[in-house]
Amino acid sequence: MRFKDVFSIIGPSMIGPSSSHTAGAARLGRTARQAMGGLPQEADIILYGSFADTYRGHGTDLAIVAGLLDYDTDDERIRDALDLAAAAGLLVRFKEGRKPDVHPNTATITMRLGDTNVSVTGRSIGGGNVEIVGIDRFDVKFTANYPTLLIYHEDRYGMVSEVTEILKNAHVNISYMEVDREARNGEALTVIESDQRIREEVIERIRELTNVRRVSVIDLASKGGTP
Amino acid sequence: MRFSSLEQLMTLCKEESLSIGRLMVVEQARETGQSTEQIYEQMASYYQVMKEAVRKGIEEETKSRSGLTGGDARRVHDYGRVQQSSLGDEASKALAYALAVSEVNASMGRVIATPTAGSCGIIPGVFVSSQERFDWEDSRLVYGLFAAGAIGYVIANNSFVSGAEGGCQAEVGSAIGMAAGALTEIRGGSPEQAVHAVGLALKNSLGLICDPVAGLVEIPCIVRNGFGAVTALAAADMALAGVRSAIPSDEVIGVMLEVGAAMPEKHRETAKGGLAQTPTGRKIMEQLYGKKGGKPK
Q: Taking every annotated instance into account, which residue ranges of this chain make up the domain Serine dehydratase-like alpha subunit (chain B) (predicted)?
């Protein structure tokens, strides 16, 4: 089932004019911010397909930047997001990208905060729903509809079971999970979607595991929540 | 969810002696683990946003960001007050309210996507005007939104709800089907009658292309929301009177998938065909984006 619940049909509450180009774009921006772990200092935003063709008329640029500022889809500040970003010290650059076989509403957001760089690629699939299809160089797929853990780690045996053990003990149910690695014994990214919000102390325990480099949490339901 | 077709939805309602709206609340709680109170509250808050958008669109003359549209909701509303409208007061009000919400959307105001932003006027147009007419409590409309959601859930998972995928039949058409079915139930129709209303309504929007001028959710999207609200009222009346959809509604949804998939790309929200490429459509695009098809200023 592509649509899982009643609020993916009725909703989201949003600032117009387009659920794909505006609400979905805001969610992509917010997911990117949370993957970064805070407000980036710089963001390069590449828009593809219909996003590239019609972004100004639909306020897609405003919405993505509003997401980077952690505003939800129905925040009236979306209209002024570019000015508010400048005031908050976020430098944004937009580019139109061309790729032959990309979904018509795709964006790649590459961010920098201090020494950390994170890149998020996602697409807006209708009714405000999104799909993330890439984090940095990893091909991973998730919807950001549920609390989601992004665990950057080294590709070593037993890593996944150490993480799932911690989640089991914390009574967190894993609803979906995916691992991608750049090479055998190289860097890997594990994505875990869960049914419940994951407590900070549980995340801390995962961060402390040997071979875990970084953990970020995507939780779009946490209003105004900054990771 | 325990249903994926309207037939299954109807059977579940019968077995559990629940309306479609009440059943949907239970199903949503089952799916998400949230309490039925939490779920009800979220939908109730969405209904408030819808009412606010109706009010805003009628009282404040909204202008879209592009400057192309705005003020039509108020025009229709005022006309209905001064002169006898052809539709009669009640349908005329549903029409004005649907235009109002759609105009608020185009002005970057707050709306609820039902199922999308391009079709966000139809359900509020039908619901808010009916509530005023029959003096219903809010809760009746909130359960109505759950019924609309259940119908939309079946359509979305068996066909399309976005114009980019299936044309305007998927967007405005789905909203008309959802509003028609929900209104039938709110007015005391059985789940079976509600499902017939969905089929009757969808049959009348099959083949509707998505051809927004300059790619914006304004022309013809806003007026289609107005027409959609009136069609939904008509479908609900037919169903309540006992008219049945001769082709079962699930099969109509299947046809929507077939027609949408066969639609050429230029008629699916690309602004490369239909009204968007008429001489006037192209002129508007040039005014906004410049001769070379650049971007809006």
A: 16-276
